[in-house]
Amino acid sequence: xxxxxxISTMFALLILAMANISFAQSVxxxxxxxxxxxxxxxxxxxxxxxxxxxxxxxxEARIDMIEGVVEVSAxxxxxxxxxxxxxxxxxxxxxxxxxxxxxxxxxEWKPAKKDGExxxxxxxxxxxFYLSEEEKELMQTLNEHGLTExxxxxxxxxxxxxxxxxxxxxxxxxxxxxKGQKAIERYGDDAENGVVIIxxxxxxxxxx
Length: 208
What we know:
By secondary structure, this protein is an alpha+beta fold.
């Protein structure tokens, strides 16, 4: 039963990282002396999709199942640039750092207006970090196999996987864990945190 559970949950991690994260974030304007609020116009043009595209959920936070919503305050200048991003509501240093990095990338805005003129405006961007129940189950499974200090290396059909991909459970032929010096000798220094070796029935799926 444990082996089946290990197989069925292992692939949650191989799904594109952002697929299981909720992006019901919002941009709060924290001043009321304006006539028009600033509007994000990056690529993608919505804050939620921008976060979805560029977020990299920190592996250590994922392993420790750290979740929450980080709030980052910033100034949208009258030139439509984001300045002075800082953490206004912290969750964890790992998530805070990633949230700050993401918000710092959001440089293209339509500025706020007052009396027909562009003006500076303070905003708070909420950056959500959540794991699905499947991912949490996977982290617990990795813990059972002693692979939780850092994310292990994944090898599918003798190919080292650097990105998240999805392998349907029915395409799994076998799965095993390799640890210690034996793993390093076979796969190099990247295997120092252990290796999860997966063999499929029909070949490795394309990276999403």
